[in-house]
Amino acid sequence: MWWLLLFIAKIAAGTGYGWFFTTLPNYEQYADTWRIFFESRQETQWLLHDPAGFLSDLFLPRYTRDAGVLGTQNSLLNDLKDVLMVKLAAVFNLLTGSRYYVNGVLYQFVTLWGQAALVRLWSSHYPARPWWLAFAGVVAIPSVLFWCSGFHRDGLILHAMGIAAWSFYQLLQKQGRTIPHFALLVVHMLLLFLLRTYLAVFFAAGMGLWWIWLRFPKVKWRITLAAASVGVLLFFTVGKILPGPHLPSVLSGRLHSFMQLSGPIQSLLPMKALEPTAIGFAKALPSAMNHTLVRPYVWELSKLTYVPAIVELLLFWVGVFMLLASIRRKKAEPLLGLEAGAFVVVILAYLIIGYTIPYLAAIIRYKAVLWPLLMPALLMRLNTQINEP
User: pLDDT tens, 143-188?
Assistant: First the structure.
């Protein structure tokens, strides 16, 4: 019945999430979770009177010149991130009488299964370890519990990753009927693409590496290094030598767009404009990794909202150093394909976050959905090191 504990924890965290944002000034407009709710009440009336128009609005062109897949402004795909949440809240309103906190309970139930799938996935890969270690790594990380339980897209993103990963695992094992698992994989990868496009791309790369490690175990490291080299080369040459959008310029533009947004000044990080060249990205790399792997610093404990994030990072780095020590003693277990794939997703996403987001509070939130791909394996391996003589 651990899933019931997960459901209760998510309801409590989601309620706290909603209440927290009511303490901010003008929360009706500036707190996304409440703005989505207030906008959804009008959409509910639209759904009642014109359901066909309500649904077709998802795909109707909004701009004379659409910025396309990679655009941050004037882009239907970019707008869909919010539009989908408003539409979902509008449907929930029919069942709850337009009550925010009751909507939250329904949302926790919908997004519960992705996290449950991740718990089962990690437990399946470490059958000799206590199940609660997988549960703690997927659910009990403070930033995960807070940011992925509120009525916002983070919970749906984590759900999509969990179901996609579990479905892919079932396909790899060839257990049961493959068509339902394939359908679940496609639907949830599409959902992930609509909600956070770059994560869907990285998730596909991670699953590809997972498959390679299982299919070609003797040459897995060579293939991994070759794929990484080709990926870096393509990143800087597409749009210059090869046809397509110039990705370094896209990321540079994203940083500029984020800098134009109004955010908490105390959370603003000292970041310079990102030069869309290999040299520019190399110069910004230490700062990007510092923002995602080290900040907030321990001496920032005075800011109470940073305390959970600091504790998470401390736990993470203690675990990393212990694992490095075990590797030096040649006592570490071989790296699993699942772990290699998860690491690829996390490190690529961390780079995107570090390069493009100038607000520390936003970085903490964007990282939250990634902890369940990293922390369970770390906790499982730490358990082995602690229990070994």
Answer: 999 999 999 999 999 999 999 999 999 998 876 678 888 999 999 9
Q: How far apart are CA 382 and CA 389, in angstroms?
A: 13
Residue 329: C-alpha distances to residues 291, 335, 364, 385 (Å): 31, 16, 34, 11
Could you tell me the pTM of the whole model? 0.91
Cα 367 to Cα 238: distance, rounded to the nearest angstrom: 27
* Residue 54 reports pLDDT greater than 60: yes
Instruction: Give the whole-angstrom CA distance, residue 279 versus residue 320.
Output: 29
Structure tokens at 307: 């305390």
Compute the distance between CA of residue 289 and CA of residue 122 in angstroms, rounded to an integer: 26
pLDDT in tens, 123-149: 988 887 888 888 889 988 999 999 999
Q: What angle, rounded to 10 degrees, do the helices at 100-125 and 32-49 form?
A: 110
Peptide bond into 358 cis (omega under 30): no
Residue ranges per domain, the chain?
1-195, 202-389
**What are the residue ranges of helices labelled H in 174-219?**
178-195, 197-215
d(CA 135, CA 118): 9
